Amino acid sequence: MVKGDRAVARAFSETGTGLIKVVAAAVIALCAGMVSDAAAQAFGQTRSQEGRDQGQYIPTIWVDPDGCEHWVMDDGAEGYMTPHVNRKGIPICRRGNLCGVMNSDQFFATDSFRIHTAGQQRLAEFFANSTAQSFIITGHTDSRASDAYNLRLSWNRASAVAKIAQANGARIADIRGYGERLPVAANSSAAGMAKNRRVEIICIQ
Amino acid sequence: MTHLRTLAGLATALGLAACGDGYPPDKTIDRGIDSKDLSTLQAGIWVDPNGCDHWIIDDGVEGYLSARLDPYGKPVCSGVAEPTRTVGDFKRGSRIFDPN
């Protein structure tokens, strides 16, 4: 506590109660601390930083029905919310809405985007039985062949899956080909490459 | 003693007013009549004019809106409703009367 504060505290104590002294001293100490903090961060300070919160908004996390996190704040009469994403813009999700990963080797021949009959049947069953509102289909490859070729092949494979979905009454929200750009395993081994050759189905409930 | 207590209250009120109004930096809870932790909010979907989904929450006095994103960080445009329409019971989280 600084000298001035003590003088004010003493003035209060003359009224004869320890309670007032304690309360007053606490309030003054609190204010003094706030003022020095505010002075230290003078840049960009406006009336909006002069409230009790000094412009500091500490959020909590709200998890949406898909399982993904959002920053949320309640400032009395106002509410604020924004998605919790990492620095690359990828959402932080506790559980995803990824509902199927197709191993490409089980559905396509090398370099082909034609789905064989057994595969078509499996997919038709999957889409017919799903309760999802719509689907996002994304294709992925390993790192062999050129980036451009892989972008095209992965899109063609995703598109082939989407066609079967639509033929079975499913709504397709988006079809994407990410090529070799979003691997889930290292491409240094045969097993890793096999894992990367995939078509992902996202179910929007 | 009563007037001393009043004085103490007054001192506190004046002291707090002197260092700013409003709530402290902790914005993680809804204070007041329908108080709750914000993690319990109940959302619906609002479809923007481009046809993409957002989580919408009407929590009494406060309103919240946040983009629905897929695992790749892209907007989810599910087609669940026409643009500008809502689905889901997004006003059920609060008991406060609100005609809109």
Number of distinct beta strands of chain A: 7
Reported for the largest beta sheet of chain A, the result is: 4 strands, mixed
As a whole number of angstroms, the C-alpha radius of gyration of chain B is 20 Å
Helix content of chain B: 10-25%
Strand content of chain B: 15-25%
Count of DSSP-assigned helices of chain B: 1
The strand order across the widest sheet of chain A is 4-7-5-6
**What's the shape of chain A?**
elongated
Chain-averaged pLDDT of chain B: 78
The spatial strand order of the largest sheet of chain B comes to 5-4-3-6
Tell me the greatest interface.
Answer: A-B, 65 and 50 residues
Which H/E pattern describes the elements of chain B? HEEEEEE
Mean pLDDT value of chain A: 83
Distance between the termini of chain B: 48 Å
Q: List low-confidence stretches of chain A.
A: 1-17, 27-33
Q: Percent of residues of chain A in beta strands?
A: 15-25%
Structural class by secondary-structure content of chain B:
alpha+beta
Tag the structure with descriptive keywords:
heterodimer; A: 205 residues; alpha+beta; 3-stranded antiparallel beta sheet; 5 helices; 7 strands; 37% helix; elongated; disordered N terminus; B: 100 residues; 4-stranded antiparallel beta sheet; two-stranded antiparallel ribbon
Task: Describe how the helices and strands are arranged.
The complex is a heterodimer of chains A (205) and B (100).
Chain A: H1 3-13, H2 18-40, E1 60-63, E2 69-74, E3 79-83, E4 98-103, H3 117-129, E5 134-140, H4 147-167, E6 172-177, H5 190-196, E7 198-204
Parallel strand pairs in A: 5-6
Antiparallel strand pairs in A: 1-2, 2-3, 4-7, 5-7
Helix pairs in contact in A: 1-2, 3-4
Chain B: H1 2-18, E1 29-30, E2 36-37, E3 44-47, E4 53-59, E5 62-67, E6 86-87
Antiparallel strand pairs in B: 1-2, 3-4, 3-6, 4-5
Provide a descriptive summary of the structure in words.
The complex is a heterodimer of chains A (205) and B (100). Chain A contains five helices and seven strands; from the N terminus they run ααββββαβαβαβ. Chain A has 205 residues and is α+β, with helices and mostly antiparallel strands. In chain A, the strands form two sheets. Chain A has a four-stranded mixed β-sheet with strand order 4-7-5-6. A three-stranded antiparallel β-sheet of chain A has the order 1-2-3, with no helix packed on it. In chain A, β2 and β3 (79-83) form a beta hairpin. In chain A, α3 (117-129) packs across α4 (147-167). The longest helix of chain A has 23 residues, at 18-40. Chain A is elongated. The model of chain A is unreliable at 1-17 and 27-33 (pLDDT under 50). Chain B is of the alpha+beta class and 100 residues long. Chain B has one helix and six strands, in the order αββββββ. Chain B has one helix at residues 2-18, and strands at 29-30, 36-37, 44-47, 53-59, 62-67, 86-87. In chain B, the strands form two sheets. Chain B has a four-stranded antiparallel β-sheet, with no helix packed on it. Chain B has a two-stranded antiparallel sheet with strand order 1-2. The model of chain B is unreliable at 4-18 (pLDDT under 50). Chains A and B meet through α2, β1, β2, β3 and β5 of A and α1, β1, β4 and β5 of B.
